[in-house]
């Protein structure tokens, strides 16, 4: 078995030397246990900030994977079945079944199991909860979403369209912007080449924004808040533009804007609604089956390329969900 260890806590942008590929000896599964083999591994933005307090130097990196049961002494997980597992960056894991989520039985044959890490997995759940539980997005409203061509953002925009909203999205390459148009976003722009972000936001929706699904933070956020309508709502999902900063952010925060526009801003983590995951995953799967929810994936081949895939995602290489196929 192989695993990727984090040798050093990240300082600034992660480096290849922060990771080391190691061999791991695994015990034979005991009664009630299973042996898992990774098929697809996820690389996600949260790994950058969360590794600071969830991973000790020398520990295996945190992460989720789709794995195949290759030995089983637990009838709930038969050999050949697939599960989503929080195994970290490992090729093989012995598990007693705790925390394993079986792939939905109704999963269509022609849909890659990797989607259980993306559109029909944690990022898809995040999109649903941000829209429904935090924003309470209503038909006819205008929604802004950034990092819009990514795993979460691309689902956010499409669900907002399903709900009958106007959707404005930003992303960092022209190819991503073209993809957002294909997905049915109403207004899209490349935030890197647009010149004035303020003008781009105003042009895309001169009457302002009812809701803002925030994935990026930093200066984007400051500018976007000025374009909210009065009583606008902001779901703070992520802040990827500051994850690699060595020193914590200090303002200025647009408090005056928040007051004058009487905005409501709420940070959230998808885990708050864990009790709703089974039902929400079924809805996401149904939307995919019905052709209402489209997806792309950025697949890196080879377990040995985990760090490269992770760093590439942080740099914006991916359209849709970034995953590694073993
Ligand atoms: P993505 O698939 O969107 O990949 C990350 C993307 O972020 C890149 O492709 C890049 O796209 C963009 N990006 C990177 N650096 C910057 C920067 N400096 N400024 C602006 N954009 C940048 O990742 P996810 O969809 O998985 O995650 C999106 C956000 O949602 C993240 O902030 C993440 O932490 C958050 N999240 C929060 C969860 C929660 O429960 N609260 C759960 C899951 C995700 P581009 O080319 O457009 O710049």
From TrEMBL:
Species of origin: Amphilophus citrinellus (Midas cichlid)
This protein's record includes keyword Magnesium: no
Entry-linked SMART domains: PKS_ER
Protein's cellular compartments: Cytoplasm
Keywords from the named record: Acetylation, Cytoplasm, Fatty acid metabolism, Hydroxylation, Lipid metabolism, NADP, Oxidoreductase, Phosphoprotein, Prostaglandin metabolism
Pfam families named in the record: ADH_N_2 (PF16884), ADH_zinc_N (PF00107)
Major location category of this protein: cytoplasm
Catalytic activity: 13,14-dihydro-15-oxo-prostaglandin E1 + NADP(+) = 15-oxoprostaglandin E1 + NADPH + H(+); an n-alkanal + NADP(+) = an alk-2-enal + NADPH + H(+); dodecanal + NADP(+) = (2E)-dodecenal + NADPH + H(+); (5S,12S)-dihydroxy-(6E,10E,12E,14Z)-eicosatetraenoate + NADP(+) = 12-oxo-(5S)-hydroxy-(6E,8E,10E,14Z)-eicosatetraenoate + NADPH + H(+)
Annotated Gene Ontology cellular component terms: cytoplasm
Gene Ontology biological process terms in this record: prostaglandin metabolic process
EC number(s) on file: 1.3.1.48, 1.3.1.74
Subunit structure: Monomer or homodimer.
Similarity annotation: Belongs to the NADP-dependent oxidoreductase L4BD family.
A GO molecular-function descriptor: 2-alkenal reductase [NAD(P)H] activity
Domain Enoyl reductase (ER) stretches: 12-324
Name of the protein in its database record: Prostaglandin reductase 1
Superkingdom, taxonomy of origin: Eukaryota
Keyword Lipid metabolism: yes
